[in-house]
Fold this sequence. Notes:
This protein is an alpha+beta fold. It has one domain (13-294): DD-peptidase/beta-lactamase superfamily (Beta-lactamase). It has eight helices and eight strands; from the N terminus they run E-E-E-H-H-H-H-E-E-H-H-E-E-E-H-H. The strands form two sheets. It has a five-stranded antiparallel β-sheet with strand order 2-1-8-7-6. Strands 3-5-4 form a three-stranded antiparallel β-sheet. Helix 2 crosses helix 6. It is globular, with a radius of gyration of 19 Å.
Amino acid sequence: MTVVLPDLDPRITWSIRVLDATTAPDPDVLAEHTPDVVCRTASVGKLFLLVEVANRLVSGRLVETDRIDIPDELRVEDSGLLYRMLDQHLTVADAALLVGAVSDNLATNALAHLVGLDAIHAVAGRLGYHDTLMLDYIRNERTPDVPWTTSYGCARELADLALRLGEGPGDTPGAELLSEPVRERVLSWLAADADTSMLADSFLLDPLAHVDPEYQGIVLRHKTGSVDTARIEVGHVAGPAGRIAYAMAANWGDDDGDLRAVAIDAMRAVGEQIRAHITRLTRAGERLDQTVGETR
């Protein structure tokens, strides 16, 4: 079964790749569209931060109960909960959980300051990625004297990262960064991700409680990114009939208006086919093979 992409609005720059994770390490490509086009990926680059933090916890260079420090110059609001909390002196492990669960910007900056941007940059390079990076801290404003974006990437590399997190790195560059204990930690943080508003909306999961297999036996581990002119989702999703790794990025210009509805409609259309692929069920819960047979 392949995934048929919907008509893609030409006002949007797309980078899309959908992989059959059951055929790893050389996965079949179920769908793609300009997978090498580099897009702004907003919070998706935080995946590299989580990989670095998990490695330091596993190696003992960090301790779960260590407390984070938040420099005044890196205080930000918007996405997350920490900036609204009375006690912001969290442990490293809890800060990482907040990043995975609600893409917490303040916790992101605190952890990035703790491990250093250079170390986060090095993760992407060691994994063999050339067009995907967490470039900078989260900023309240992007002035000319700071990097142009928080993170960027292409679907080819982001889908590969999702595949390696979900299935294991195999014999790939930087495999030592994605040991089983590291992957377990990163995936446990991503299991709490409450943003199922994009592609994952089609999986019909409980946004606040899908750590264990949920609707139709689906297990989702994913990361999203949002800014005014972009929507991005990267993930690994498993069901009783298969497993898929995917990346879908949509960018548009300020002059095009707010195209989030157009972008998310396309993402949901792709998500619907992914759900059918991994469950062999239609949205109504009918077996897909039976439905196909009846319509021939």
